[in-house]
Amino acid sequence: MTDPRNQIERALDRALAFATATKRPPLLCEAVHHAVFAGGARVRPRLCLAVAAACGNRNPTASMAAATAIELLHCASLVHDDLPCFDDADLRRGKPSVHAAFGEPIAVLVGDALIVLAFETIARECATSPDRIAPLIATIGRSVGMPHGIVAGQAFESEPEIPLAEYHRTKTAALFVGATASGAIAAESDPQPWMAVGEALGAAYQVADDLRDKMADLAETGKPCRQDAANGRPNAVDAFGVSGTLMQLQTLVEEAVATVPDCPGADSLKALIAGEAKRLVPKRAAQAAA
Amino acid sequence: MTDPRNQIERALDRALAFATATKRPPLLCEAVHHAVFAGGARVRPRLCLAVAAACGNRNPTASMAAATAIELLHCASLVHDDLPCFDDADLRRGKPSVHAAFGEPIAVLVGDALIVLAFETIARECATSPDRIAPLIATIGRSVGMPHGIVAGQAFESEPEIPLAEYHRTKTAALFVGATASGAIAAESDPQPWMAVGEALGAAYQVADDLRDKMADLAETGKPCRQDAANGRPNAVDAFGVSGTLMQLQTLVEEAVATVPDCPGADSLKALIAGEAKRLVPKRAAQAAA
Q: Which residue of A has its CA nearest to B138?
């Protein structure tokens, strides 16, 4: 499989063009571009496309629509997460966060606009396969809304006690489940067996994020580290130490690989997951474990 | 036509049940209910249903789905508009605004959750008429997103100069256009001629809102008045005086009535518009003009 990153960038460009072609309102248009084209790794849309490819890629338009919507929703969640009332992060991927660059009102609106645009994109791009629209929206909506998705996950931070497993499942893993399940749906396959793959990958990603927060530096991640401690959030490294957390990460990646269902492209997907997992471990943690 | 308000409340209740039945996360669930069941007049969903009825009401499920989504999106916009970084309003319809009652993080998330829920509702409720989903999402998405919808409208407040006509068209009239056009789409009619009706009604509503901001008191509107002046926003009463603004309102309502296209229920819709218009004029303005 060729690297789909360029295709994803083009699809995002196309989606944004529908929102920003008139350049009105100017600041909002600029801020939406800033939020979406900020050097993200596009992990979730690549996963969505990889699952669709593994399932036989029956409907490339629908899978690209799903992948695009998922990345737009991910970007929306980052913009709102960075707001002063949440993480109050002035940097994101080494650049000013949206509210730092454009002000808080525009940052709230960028998130709102990207959520709307995500659903518009699914509806528009699936015009030739309208039977894909409702299941894609149900699955992707579930992974970002409440009670199962990112918004619910983020809201647990406002509870007097954070239920750790539910918090990580909703805030981080849910969109990975959305990515794998919607990739299968787009390819006209059963999404059910793919949910466990997304769940394990999402959990692995969360553990890797905890490691990065503790051990990476700004140059490596492009965002401020040690944010969990600063924001009073739980971190796996505190509970299990570096080597324990690395073992957890390995177990979760193996689980993700093991749960990949039989399908035409199972082997290349498994290789992709294993390769991606290595990229997630911060250098200092890998050195510490070596 | 019977008053559809109870049906709208039941449909909103049903939509929210999908998001809040598990009562997780507890605060977010409570806040979402607070935002949606706060004694709103349900003007936009009633308009949507009235247009669908005037068009022959071919698909009551689809029109109720559209009406519900529009009200959820309207509620989302109110919650975000009240945030400290926008209007900083502690009261809404005589009760604490969402951020005043539940904190700013939860208020941001309530808005996000309601936007997601709106699109999920359309996809789910139109399961038996899937060909309605894409056009409804396109039309409703346009009325809330960018560059034509509420989000764009709100973003004009961050521009160095506010383009008045474009600001009102996007921030207020767009969702009225969404309501009339989606009512027609749900009823399998051509939405095109209905857009002018929504445009005129939305403009009328904006003018009425300006009057209320200047002339009504808290007891009448349930929210702080004189907010336009406090927030440096333009207000028609400053430009045209009370009687000039009332004349403008009357002209716009007449325009809305005149643009209602030929359809089975045109007469009862025209009567409804005329009745609704009277309700919009604050008592003091009506007395001043008498």
A: A120
